Amino acid sequence: MAPTIVLVHGAFADSSSWNGVIEKLRAQGYSVIAAANPLRGLANDAAYIGSVLDTIDGPCVLVGHSYGGSVITVAAAAKTNVTALVYIAAFIPAEGESALELTDKFPGSTLGPTTRPALYPLADANTGTELYIRQEEFPAQFAADVPAEIAELMAATQRPVALAGLQEPAAAAAWRTIPAFALLTTEDKNIPVAAQRFMADRAAAHTVEVSASHAVAVSIPGAVSDLIALAANR
Fold it and tell me: Where is the AB hydrolase-1 domain (predicted)?
């Protein structure tokens, strides 16, 4: 039975960022779900993705982009139907590590100065802080190898991430028991490629490097779908 492919987007993106990848995977006969990552906090986001996994009969391959890598790392820890984890320009945290901690472990990220904060209401009547990338800086920062008109649309439709989610440590590391695959992006301005290599090596991931921006699922969907298919057929 072919596994269902579950795609989890990261910060400053939405599920439509997987459209090119979905098209290629469906052409190979895979069932695909592009889950809507809430981007409100790591434990909360992982619990939501876990609930999506619970709706799937049979095996699945879980794929995360960027902060979505942190989410799948936690979400898959208690799920017996996940046969592989695929990280696309993504965080691969160990227990107790946060996305921001891993970003700062190596020099090279220029994300911080391009973001703007905004307040949003919390259920307890307090407020939280979420981050956007400034629209005029989004194409160069996030999607430098994406056609300009598409990058501008991505900037307008980006979903903000709760700062607390980027600061929250991972409670589990599913890659310790589930085979990992990683696509590393050498022209990435969000997560330095040195950080990506460190995380992939530590997870003993099957690794492929491509010359691409952080938005590799949009700019080179074939490279992404090829690695996912490899993981699905292991």
Answer: 5-224
